[in-house]
Amino acid sequence: LIQSVPTRSNSTYYMLERFIELSDNISLALLECPKAPMLTASKLQLATEIIQVMNPIEAATKEICGEQYVTGSKIIPLI
Q: In the chain, how many domains are there?
């Protein structure tokens, strides 16, 4: 799994995305640990919706961070 890192702007997005991708496998693994907290279906759905909202932000951040020096002409079209 990917962990969220405060200094990396898209790390929470990548963490949630990977968690959703692996949620079936994670659930199976957690069945072996009876005291482990399990996410409900509604919380998994919420995480999926958060990813959909964050997707354009991740794409814009990735585009802006790809350059060493960002110019205003690149930022305005992204908005």
A: 1
